[in-house]
Amino acid sequence: MIRGIHHVAVSTPDLDRLVAFYRDVMGAEVVYEGGWGKGSDIIDEIVGMKGSACRQAMLKLGNAHLEFFQYESPTPKPGDPERPACDHGYTHFCIDVTDIDTEYERLTAAGVKFNCPPKFEGGPIRATYGRDPDGNLIEIQQILDPDHDFYLGAWNPT
Q1: Alpha carbons 24 and 63: distance in angstroms, whole number
Q2: Is 45 helix (H, G, I), strand (E, B) or coil?
Q3: Which CATH fold topology does 1-74 show?
Q4: 16 pLDDT above the threshold of 80
Q5: What pLDDT does residue 68 have?
Q6: Cα distance between residue 111 and residue 89, in whole Å
Q7: 148: which residues sit within 8 A by CB, 6+ positions away?
Q8: Among 21, 41, 57, 128, which is least packed by CB within 10 angstroms?
Q9: Over 50: is that where the pLDDT of 156 sits?
Q10: What pTM was computed for the model?
């Protein structure tokens, strides 16, 4: 039986930088740091890559976890830090907040680049997208009407 989402995983070229951002700026708690070296046939089979090696960290943020990998082998292809949300693959993960205006200001002061200030005045939610230090899209949202906590199916802002 599926219970829900446990974590979102992101590959990064700089594990220390990304962990520091999510720990120090976003308030996540580091619950595991580790990784593996070349020669782990079991992990190679799971991840589908021969000769894999990486450092990793798992952080708890509210009711979910974020997992970050810095692969040493095989050599990763760099991501596009400006990749638009419409491109195939990971688009973003959303962080639920209780005061979006305060968080928007705090995160902006910490260097997060947002597409715009929080939107949907008068709606059941307010939200905006920004980018972490690697350029990964993160959404911050505040649910104003608890009947719309899954707002996409229940509300159309147009």
Answers
A1: 18
A2: helix
A3: 2,3-Dihydroxybiphenyl 1,2-Dioxygenase; domain 1 (3.10.180)
A4: yes
A5: 93
A6: 25
A7: 124, 125, 154, 155
A8: 41
A9: no
A10: 0.79
Distances (CA, A) of 90 to 60, 67, 71, 151: 20, 14, 18, 20
**Residue 90 · residue 66 · CB < 8 Å:** no
Question: Reduced to 3 states, what is the DSSP secondary structure of residue 46?
Answer: helix
DSSP string, 83-122: --TTSSS---EEEE-S-HHHHHHHHHHTT-EESSS-B-TT
pLDDT of residue 153: 41
What tokens does 148 get?
A: 């719309």
Architecture, CATH, for domain 89-158: Roll (3.10)
The conformational region for residue 144 under phi > 0 = left, psi -120 to 50 = alpha, else beta, is alpha
Q: Do domains 1-74 and 89-158 have the same CATH topology?
A: yes
